[in-house]
Amino acid sequence: MKVAILSGTVYGTAEDVARHAANLLKAAGFEPWHDPRAQLDQILAFEPDALLIVTATTGMGELPDNFVPLYSAIRDKFPAWQGLPGGVIALGDASYGDTFCGAGELVREMFAELGVREVQDMLRLDASETVTPETDAEPWLEGFVAALRG
């Protein structure tokens, strides 16, 4: 199963989590693809069977600047991803209150519009509580792998 892993990051942490996810998915027998500078045409050429989006949250619950062009391209082109399984890992800081992991919520809304089926609840990683987000994501990723195997 081919899994496209897309990431949006501010300080590199979301990209680190995405790379770690790719390694775990590969070890589990999947074919992950992750390019932090991914363009929509590259993702479409890969023809993913599943999507994983790892994104930091910036400002007042917004997507990181490096992810906005890809997010906009996906929303504009509306790829035929209806029914694809997907998952979202959101990074944020709970001290921001209502906007905590807001970028992840934006991705979930996009998934709903595209018909991408979230196979488990979004993982929220709190920067004020974790110093090892890659490791903290492992139990969720194990559940993601199990859900993809169905």
From TrEMBL:
Domain Flavodoxin-like: 3-145
InterPro entries documented for this protein: Flavodoxin/NO_synth (IPR008254), Flavoprotein-like_sf (IPR029039)
Top-level taxon: Bacteria
Keywords: Flavoprotein, FMN
Cofactor(s) recorded in Swiss-Prot or TrEMBL: FMN
Protein name: Flavodoxin
